[in-house]
Design goal:
Number of strands of chain B: 7
CATH superfamily of the largest domain in chain C: Cytochrome C biogenesis protein
Radius of gyration of chain B: 27 Å
Structural class of chain B: alpha/beta
CATH superfamily of one domain in chain B: Glutaredoxin
Strand order of the largest sheet of chain B: 5-4-3-6-7
Strand content of chain C: under 5%
CATH architecture of one domain in chain B: 3-Layer(aba) Sandwich
Oligomer: heterotrimer
Chains: A alpha+beta (about 675), B alpha/beta (about 190), C mainly alpha (about 190)
CATH architecture of the largest domain in chain C: Orthogonal Bundle
CATH topology of one domain in chain B: Glutaredoxin
Shape of chain B: elongated
CATH class of one domain in chain B: Alpha Beta
Radius of gyration of chain C: 33 Å
CATH topology of the largest domain in chain C: Helicase, Ruva Protein, domain 3
Number of helices of chain C: 8
Helix content of chain C: 40-55%
Largest sheet of chain C: none
Structural class of chain C: mainly alpha
Order of helices and strands of chain B: HEEEHEHEHEEH
Number of domains of chain C: 2
Strand content of chain B: 15-25%
Largest interface: A-C, 80 and 71 residues
Helix content of chain B: 25-40%
Largest sheet of chain B: 5 strands, mixed
Distance between the termini of chain C: 66 Å
Order of helices and strands of chain C: HHHHHHHH
Chain lengths: ~675, ~190, ~190
């Protein structure tokens, strides 16, 4: 019964989404109240059907209904309940079902929010959203059907991949990633609507920015969560390996960040409309490319799935979407003409362009490197790899350049600036730059790139701080308010600006922390017997004993390591090796002692409980926890910038306008 | 970037074609799609061996249980089949019988096993349980496996009389495949 | 461990059985390494080799047996004085170009190294051209700078110019208050 129910829900979702897309496009071309009402209803219906389909699958997973094909694939009676719940997104078809859930939720919320706004744009936007929804429903109804009936269901199933049961991060990472990834559908629809209508007015750029920012926040957190997962779980001591799947999540983030910045110029100066729309559309297309990379089995990656019909189906959709985009832009981009003008001399305006250029360069480089083995195979017939050494070499100068732009950009004023203004803007932050670089030198940093990063980082830190405090200082001066009052009032009036600078602060810390942790760490591989001690850096490690632990789903061998530093005991760490029944190679779980300054990282290479010996990799990684903390700061900044989106202040402006009719103080001075 | 126009201009009604955008779009989109389509169906995990057609790397390894080292040079003049295997490898069980039968049937061909990432004790126990028609050699530190570019087990190399690798087969072998590839090794080339 | 001890150890450790040897990388071309330099170079070269049984990890990062064996071979060869390119070629002759994590300059590979540079230069050119065209469109001289109406239209005011209509002016001041934090929309006295 459950499989039939699930298949019916999906089929209905496909029909409703297709109908809704059609009605949306027709209403966009020929506006009508009835058309818009029905577009909205179909959108809500799609969301509801997707939610019901997901609930049905969760029900099947929790009741271990092995007549459902997906449950037979990943379900198991011997795993904890949370694993059963999480299995919804742990494997291919289920994750596409989950994609549908998130998409439905986003479409419903975005439609409801704009139900009586932007009437010329919205039907087109909803039409585009539902067209995307129709594609994913088609995937679910066909190549990725999770609700196929299993004719002779087994009594039990294999359970999800062992790697995924190893750590609780598996619970949070996919939902965040999908909330980011799938959420990019919304700004895509809005951008297409702007092109179809032939206008990107000042009123419409605001929702475009906001609906780009929300998924951006999720995606930022998700990417770093992925890195954290690799660090805490995989045991090789790093957090980013430029695996195709990692790049798949990173590429849309790069274009989305560029789009957020150029959208600011659209709002402020009504320029770069066509370019911004292109970036937003590129972001969405990169998510589709990313999902193709992850699921098609064409790329050699951590996430590889076996070849199936899903790959070609997504590729067809990607090709169609790309061609649709090219045609749409070719025919309509000229309608989004600029109404303002960018300053051309040294100014913040130009730095925005430089930033966009750097992000596009970064996107191109990562995409080229990821796709390149396929190119070489097609041209030379040779299989080759483009791995970490290449990407690190390329990312390093781009990252440092971005750090530079993040400092110099906000320091420069908008519009034309005099030489005195430039001097006054660019000279003082050199103090911060010198301070941070000197601190690095004092603490032993010798790598030139890291010193440069510290220098630019210090510059950026000072600029960001002074920009955050600028309105506060002005209010204190002109209104005589105290610091706290001035700050509260300034943030109330300029929350997006404040949020943006908080994000910059976080980003600066991330880049500097990556630089320091990559160049200032120590590592040691050592073989120890029980009772033996070794020193790494300032730490003394004693291998106390190896013990075997038996759990229902796995056998573990763990090493008890006593840690001390300068004679003071710092506790015990328990790195382990876990042997799951279904895997040949055991999976190690590293043990990490995290502190603000550095991480002590222990990973087992081999362990023998009989002879009492262990082979360990010991790493001392400085400043790694700063990466995680600074990402939270970035997310916080994004949230701060989003808050005004749901507050309305029209009454205040109208009430005051007639009263303030005294002659303006307008003397240009 | 588009040309600036007077503020508030109504959108163009005629379908003007922005050729710059069209060209740039196609330049990006067409090669991307082409590359992805061309690679559909290719399994990125099977890596073709560069050793096919080249001389087989030399080695001199001791058989399980001890004895004189067996060197590849000493087998020149006869076709050689080298099978990398391990006791923890399930497909290796499957092909073991086929290989043993082939070794008994094809007397002019020398069959050798090379143990991959396993312990001598376990391999001895395994072979005692199942009869072995040819010797298996221990490969300390996996040097021979690395030299032969082994990605996993089972992998089998078919070598002709002159010592050239004629074919590398990945996965469990069946009797028919063994015969076919041995025939190629006998004739000295594809 | 000094060079002498290492050499002795290697001599003693020469096993009666010989593992497969490299096909034709020839004699070592560089000086033998030892100690911290040996460790460091082993790590560096290990990071350039792909572990064949892992998903994209380098030989230096992977804990698998195969990777550790390969790393031991790298160390041996470095200690014997082989250079980086010789060692990488040796593994490449067994595993193919696949095993190199950093692309060489063969055939079409140059594209992956120079492509980004081309995009940087090309993109920079486009930005410069667009700025130049924008400057040209603005008209000769500094017309937009001295004409307050045109400035007020396109740039945020740094001089506090306001439109004539009082209701519009009040709205503009409110906007400035919200956007720039200027109290009552009046720019603060120059600092």
């Amino acid at each position: 019964m459950v499989p039939i129910l699930g298949r019916t829900l999906i089929l209905l979702a496909l029909l409703i989404a297709s109908a809704g897309a059609l009605v949306g496009f027709v209403t966009g071309a020929r506006p009508s109240g009835v058309g818009w009402t029905w577009t909205r209803r179909l959108a809500y219906a799609f969301a509801a059907l997707m939610a019901l389909a997901n609930l049905t699958m969760e029900y099947a997973l929790l009741t271990h209904d092995f007549s459902v094909s997906y449950v037979a694939h990943v379900g198991s009676r011997s795993v904890p309940t949370w694993v059963s719940i999480v299995s919804l997104w742990s494997s291919l078809e289920g994750s596409i079902l989950f994609w549908g859930l998130v998409m439905g939720a986003y479409i419903a919320v975005a439609t409801w929010q704009n139900r009586d706004k932007h009437p010329e744009y919205m039907p087109y936007a909803v039409g585009v959203w539902l067209a995307c929804g129709a594609f994913f429903s088609f995937l679910l109804a066909g190549p990725a059907q999770p609700f196929a009936t299993v004719l002779n269901p087994q009594a039990d199933g294999p359970g999800p991949n062992a790697l995924l049961q190893n750590h609780y991060l598996m619970v949070i990472h996919p939902p965040f990633l999908y909330s980011g990834y799938v959420g990019m559908t919304i700004p895509f629809g809005l951008a297409c609507a702007a092109l179809l209508v032939g206008r990107l007015g000042h009123d419409f750029i605001r929702p475009l920015r906001d609906m780009l920012l929300l998924p951006w926040i999720f995606l930022t957190v998700a990417i770093v969560l992925g890195g954290w997962w690799a660090y805490e779980v995989l045991g090789w001591g790093g957090y980013w390996a430029w695996d195709p799947v990692e790049n798949a999540s990173f590429l849309p983030w790069l274009t989305a960040t560029a789009a957020l910045h150029s959208a600011l110029l659209v709002e402020r100066k009504a320029v770069l409309k066509g370019w911004t729309v292109t970036l937003v559309i590129a972001t969405y297309l990169l998510t589709i490319l990313g999902t193709f990379m992850t699921r098609s089995g064409v790329f050699n990656s951590v996430h590889s799935f076996t070849q199936s019909a899903i790959g070609p189906t997504i590729l067809v959709f990607l090709a169609a979407a790309l061609l649709f985009t090219v045609v749409l832009l070719t025919l309509r981009v000229d309608t989004l003409a600029a109404e303002g003008r960018l300053e051309t001399g040294p100014s913040r305006d130009v730095m925005f362009l430089v930033q966009n250029l750097l992000f596009v360069l970064f996107t191109f480089t990562v995409l080229l490197g990821t796709v390149f083995p396929l190119v070489v195979e097609a041209v030379r017939g040779v299989q080759m790899s483009v791995g970490r050494p290449y990407f690190d070499k390329m990312a390093l100068p781009i990252g440092v350049a971005l750090l530079f732009v993040m400092g110099v950009g906000p320091a420069l004023p908008w519009g034309r600036a005099t030489k005195e203004q430039l001097r006054g803007a660019l000279l003082p932050p050199l103090i911060g730059a010198a301070v941070l670089a000197a601190a690095g030198l004092a603490l032993g940093v010798r790598s030139p790139w890291t010193l440069v990063a510290l220098f630019f980082g210090g510059f950026t830190a000072q600029v960001t701080l002074s920009e955050i405090l600028l309105p506060v200082r002005q209010r204190m001066r002109s209104h005589g308010e105290g610091v706290l009052d001035a700050f509260l009032e300034a943030q109330r009036r300029g929350r997006r600006r404040l949020g943006a600078y908080i994000v910059h602060a976080g980003a600066m810390i991330v880049i500097v922390a990556i630089g320091v942790s990559s160049t200032m760490g120590t590592s040691k591989e050592i073989q120890l017997r029980e009772g033996e001690t070794t020193t790494v850096g300032a730490y003394t490690l004693t291998f106390v004993k190896a013990e075997a632990i038996s759990e229902p789903h796995r056998q573990s061998a763990r090493a008890q390591m006593d840690i001390s530093r300068n004679g003071r005991s710092l506790g015990t760490l328990y790195p382990s090796m876990n042997q799951y029944e279904s895997q040949r190679e055991p999976i190690g779980t590293p043990a990490v002692r995290t502190s603000l300054t550095e991480d002590l990282y222990l990973s087992i290479h081999n362990i023998d409980t009989d002879t009492g010996s262990v082979g360990l990799l010991v790493l001392v990684n400085p400043m790694v926890s700063w990466i995680w903390i600074a990402t939270a700061v970035m997310a916080l900044g994004g949230l701060v910038a989003l808050v005004p989106a749901w507050r309305r202040e029209p009454a205040a402006v109208q009430a005051r306008a007639p009263a303030a009719s005294t002659p303006p103080e307008g003397a240009p001075g | 970037m588009t040309a600036a126009s007077t503020p508030g201009a109504t959108p163009a009604q005629a379908a003007r074609i922005n050729t710059r955008v069209l060209v740039m779009g196609l330049v990006i989109v067409v090669p991307l799609i082409a590359i992805l389509v061309l690679n559909l169906g290719r399994d990125p995990h099977t890596v073709r061996s560069p050793l096919v057609g080249r001389p087989a790397p030399a080695f001199s390894l001791v058989p399980i249980g001890g004895g004189d080292p067996v060197s590849l040079e000493s087998l020149r003049g006869r076709p050689v089949v080298i099978n990398f295997w391990a006791t923890w490898c399930v497909p290796c069980f499957q092909e073991h019988a086929a290989l043993a039968a082939a070794a008994r049937g094809l007397r002019d061909v020398r069959f050798l096993g090379v143990v991959y990432e396993d312990e001598e004790v376990r391999t001895q126990a395994f072979l005692q349980q199942r009869e072995s028609a040819y010797p298996s050699l221990m490969d300390p530190e996996g040097k021979t496996a690395i030299a032969y570019g082994v990605f996993g087990v089972p992998e089998t190399f078919f070598i002709d009389r002159a010592g050239r690798i004629v074919e590398k087969y990945v996965g469990p072998l069946e009797r028919s495949t063994i015969s076919e590839l041995v025939a190629r090794a006998r004739s000295g080339g594809p | 461990m000094n060079a002498v001890a290492l050499a002795l150890l290697l001599a003693l450790a020469a096993p009666p059985q010989r593992g497969a040897s490299a096909t034709g990388i020839g004699a070592p071309r560089g000086p033998p390494l030892s100690g911290a330099a040996l460790d460091a170079r082993t790590q560096e070269i290990g990071e350039l080799l792909r572990c064949p049984v892992c998903q994209g990890l380098s030989v230096a990062d992977s804990p698998s047996t195969m990777a550790r064996n390969m790393k031991a071979q790298v160390r041996e060869k470095l200690a014997a004085g082989y250079e980086q390119e010789q060692i990488l070629s040796d593994f490449e002759s067994s595993y193919g170009e696949f095993v190199r994590l950093q692309p060489t300059m063969r055939g079409v590979n140059w594209l992956v190294w120079f492509g980004p540079l081309a995009v940087l230069l090309g993109g920079g050119g486009i930005v410069a051209w667009a700025l130049k065209r924008s400057r040209r469109d603005a008209g000769p001289g500094d017309a937009t700078q001295t004409d307050p109406a045109a400035r007020a239209h396109s740039d945020p005011p740094s001089r506090g110019a306001l439109p004539d209509d009082p209701r519009l002016a009040a709205a503009v001041r409110r906007v400035r208050q919200l956007a720039y934090g200027w109290p009552d929309g009046v720019p603060p006295r120059a600092s």
